[in-house]
Amino acid sequence: MSDLVLTVDEAAARLRVSRWTLYNLIRSGRLRTVKIGRRRLVPVNALAECIDALGEVA
C-alpha cells in the first residue's frame, strides 16, 4: 500500500523545500493538511493540488 499521508518532514523533502517554507504554505491555506491527534499530516494528493495551484499563479 502506498503512503496516503506524509509527515511535515517527508512532505518538505518531496517538495524539496524547508520545513519553514512548508509551514508557510500550510498557514497560507495553499497546502491542505489533516490533524490526527497532535500530529499534522499532509495527504499525498494535497501536494499535487498545491503544485498545480502554485503553477497557475506563476
Plain-language structure description:
InterPro entries: DNA-bd_dom_put_sf, HTH_17, SinI_DNA-bd. It holds the Pfam family HTH_17. The chain is α+β, with helices and mostly antiparallel strands and 58 residues long. It has one domain (5-57). It is 53% helix and 17% strand. It is built from 3 helices and 3 strands, in the order βααββα. It has helices at 8-15, 19-27, 44-57; strands at 5-6, 34-36, 39-43. It has a 3-stranded antiparallel sheet with strand order 1-3-2. A hairpin with a 2-residue loop joins β2 and β3 (39-43). α1 crosses α2. The longest helix has 14 residues, at 44-57. The relative contact order is 0.21.
What does this entry show, briefly?
The chain has 58 residues and is of the alpha+beta class. It is built from 3 helices and 3 strands. A hairpin with a 2-residue loop joins β2 (34-36) and β3 (39-43).
Keywords:
58 residues; alpha+beta; three-stranded antiparallel β-sheet; 3 helices; 3 strands; globular; HTH_17; DNA-bd_dom_put_sf
**Rg, please?**
11 Å
Number of helices: 3
Which residue ranges are poorly predicted, with pLDDT under 50 across at least 5 consecutive positions?
A: none
Estimated structural class: alpha+beta
Order of helices and strands: EHHEEH
According to DSSP, the number of beta strands is 3
Helix content: 40-55%
Please state the average pLDDT score: 93
Distance linking N and C termini: 34 Å
Sheet having the most strands: 3 strands, antiparallel
What is the count of distinct domains?
1
- Taking strands numbered 1, 2, ... along the chain, how are they ordered across the largest sheet? 1-3-2
Shape: globular
Strand content: 15-25%
Protein name: Helix-turn-helix domain-containing protein
Pfam families: HTH_17
InterPro entries: DNA-bd_dom_put_sf (IPR009061), HTH_17 (IPR041657), SinI_DNA-bd (IPR010093)
Domain Helix-turn-helix: 5-50
